[in-house]
């Protein structure tokens, strides 16, 4: 393997982990909701799937629309994370309120979509490149799946340590990450 190809592979691995880190951060907060291991496994797989579909969609659409849609995708993702986090914080104070967003059903789709929006923008910038597109998509899916699992499992452990306060911490993480997306 020539040195330039090795450099491209290393770049793709780092890019995959960078894209998966938002899934890790948000999963840390979501994992504090006392989620069963089966749900954690399913959530990781769904996030991995979205981290494959979103950049592929971006690649297919091409760089023609990247300047117009890329900003709106990040904006909507940031707003969605702030809303989910705020709802978690408010539900921690109001025990009668049913949890609105959990990584189940439609909540799982929103969760996976929100953490995968930045990979759409990366897909737009990748463009159509021979076989590296497939490798990039596989790396994106693997890294995001693994990091989602790690975040949710760590969140589950933190919940055991912090009890009811962990939902406030988890919501704060989501709000903070959403605000970071909005203002960076």
Automatic annotation (TrEMBL):
Pfam families: Mntp. It is a multi-pass membrane protein. Signal peptide: none annotated. The chain crosses the membrane at residues 6-28, 40-65, 77-95, 107-128, 134-155, 162-183. It is found in: Cell membrane. Keywords: Cell membrane, Ion transport, Manganese, Membrane, Transmembrane, Transmembrane helix, Transport. It comes from the Bacteria. Its main location: membrane. Probably functions as a manganese efflux pump. Belongs to the MntP (TC 9.B.29) family. This is Putative manganese efflux pump MntP.
